Records
---
Amino acid sequence: MKLGSVPGITSVSLRSVEQTTTELRKLLARLRENDPTLEAAAVQAAELAHEQSAGVLALVEHPGADPGILVGGIVPVDRAVTIENAAELRYYLADAGGPGLREVTQAETARGYPVVITERILLGGAQLQAVVLDRAGARAAVFTLHSPSGRGWLDLAAVAGRLVTSVDFTARVP
């Protein structure tokens, strides 16, 4: 899978939890020094990315928003992907709900991949999850964007959305 380069998204390495945490902290300090909420989010995101063998961990920024953290990776799907599968996933997520569920939508990326998007508004900020389904294989790309403050959430989500729509399952990363 290949992702496009998107202004406002800066990836960090995933070599080790310590290195990931250090890089993410440096990026966040450039934007906001001594912010305990962002500090805690950086540590949690680094640990989560390594536990889940994420393929990408990045800082997402927009001039009108507080920074957010994006974690993404590929997961296996146990059957061929169709538009009907995307609709089933959308209905399942809407029914499963959970705290703060605001919206569950379905769309298509620029390359025609089905994508299911969930948005949650929580006490600890806002979260968007996008699941891009590969029609040609039994896999999906899952991205989770977390904004610890929620300030400028729509602007931040739009930046992350540009990355999600760039997913290309047919391209190989050199």
---
Amino acid sequence: MTQYKDDRKRPHLRLVVNNPELRGSRPATGEDASIPFEVLIAKRHELRADFYKGIAPQHVKAYERIERHLERRGWLYGLDPQHGRLMVIPAATACPKVLEHGGSPQDELLLFVADDPTGLGLCLCLEMILPFWSDDDAVMEEALIYAPIYPYGSLFLEENRNDGYLDLIYRLSFPLYPPAPTERLLEKLFAVARYELRETLIGLDEFPEA
């Protein structure tokens, strides 16, 4: 299976909790330590200047709209300017069902703004490493093959650079027209992710090594 090789394109995956105590004894080879969510919360205001430094005005506008949306909902979130300008949210906050299907309070949703494939607009992206793993890569590949196909989000496998196991990752992307997200679009983004994550995790419960 082809893996991503360009770290500049996928730096955000380094942040997600790896739960090494659960994933067997394969030696850790990663170069980057995960950043505790509590640290991102505590230093959010301190990190904000670096988070917004040097990014295009349309990205600034989009991120500011997202911050206002999260604050209006009363959700805790962190800002990470070091791994791809990520907004980090506890997965159980946006999708409570995660805790019913093998997830933990440490699992995170990563929210970020990216250029769309045309280079002419922006995309609002949400990702989560799913709380499903096996030390047998064939099991992970089978889970991907038989996982549901959704109209909005998608699943893919990527090798975790910290422990060498395959991660099953959910990604949801919405184009932004106009460039800044509206309240209605953000509500829809989280509603879609909540539904698709729930259905995915229910399906993964049927796998014997889930």
---
Amino acid sequence: MKNLKYVIISTMCLGLSSCGQQGKNGAPQAEVRNDTQTGPFNLASLTMGQNINDILKSGGLTTKDTVQTDEITLIGNERLAFSTEKILHFNGISLDGKNSKNTNKVLLHFGKVDHEIGPLANEKDDELGMYQLDIYTENEKKALFENLNQTLQKPIFETQHESFESEVKDNEIIQTPNKLKQEIAIWKNNDVVYYYCETQIDNKPDEYRCNLFVFKSKEWKDLLKGSGYPDLDKISLS
């Protein structure tokens, strides 16, 4: 019975050189003709509400190109994950890469209405609600973050957190001696939120991760907040 509004994306390790065109307000734009880009695919040009099938077509992708992921999306939505270099481009930056444990990927979260019970929130069939970048490599993370600062200017909020990693042992949550560091940056442009979270854990270099979530609806903000991502209360959405 689908009676939950949202579910958690992940449990632990919460898990941005520009050469794209710029709009009048500094937002990155890509040249598009009939839903098919004339140049390399550009994640920064995606818009919320865009049809998922048009996105796949413009990137030369099909559902056969997806990769497995443990990430979960809002109920009433589905997600597709890709690690191919064809789609991992952000304003001319290639985000393709991997470390010894994980491969960089993008997740496209899109509406899929159960027509027996109807929409659970504001989702609409095949419309993009949020895209998510999971980056595990330092060079690509640095290039992405610098590009966000160049195209979106100063974040509306930026901070750092330090605590200790926790883990579950014998059904109890215990604190480990490993220090957990997080850097948070939030940009907002034309009601679109760019939420960036970088996580590092002492003694666990393979667990390094940065995430970028791009969305504009409150439901996605609530999902991230419920998943444990900090400082979501700094975002104002109508």
